[in-house]
Design brief:
Layout (H helix, E strand, L loop, with lengths): L1 E4 L6 E4 L2 E4 L2 E4 L4 H6 L23 E2 L9 E4 L4 E8 L10 E7 L5 E4 L3 E4 L1
Antiparallel strand pairs: 1-2, 2-9, 3-4, 5-10, 6-9, 7-8, 7-10
């Protein structure tokens, strides 16, 4: 996996490294030790699936307050979305700033959002 840093500390664009041949490819989507090496909480506590029926639909911003905050990993498995992370950590130099990334079934990239940041698709 390739961890691409963004302007917000702890928010990464994750690009899977594909190992392919004429049959297709294999790509590791999550690896606990490598995630921890980048300061990302590697524990998977919950896994959700969201389906948006119509185009150009916004589902809103989502986050949890302490003590229920969690790291989120957002991925698009069909079609395309533009996902956004907003820094809500008052002590952060990027407080209230945002980053966004197109996540598609083709690019297979993921956005990692740390505790204290909201995410919206």
């Amino acid at each position: 996996m390739i961890f691409k840093e963004t302007k917000i500390a702890g928010v990464f664009l994750l690009e899977p490294e594909r190992l392919g041949d004429d049959r297709g490819f294999f790509a590791r989507m999550w690896y606990q030790p490598e995630s921890a090496d980048h300061g990302v909480d590697p524990r998977v506590v919950q896994c959700n699936l969201s389906f948006i029926r119509t185009r150009a639909r916004w589902r809103g911003m989502h986050f949890q307050r302490a003590p229920h905050e969690e790291t989120k990993v957002v991925r698009c498995t069909m079609g395309a979305v533009f996902d956004v992370a907003v820094d809500l950590r008052r002590d952060s130099p990027t407080f209230r700033q945002w980053v966004g990334a197109p996540l598609t079934a083709e690019n297979r990239e993921m956005l990692v959002i740390p505790p204290g940041c909201a995410t919206g698709t």
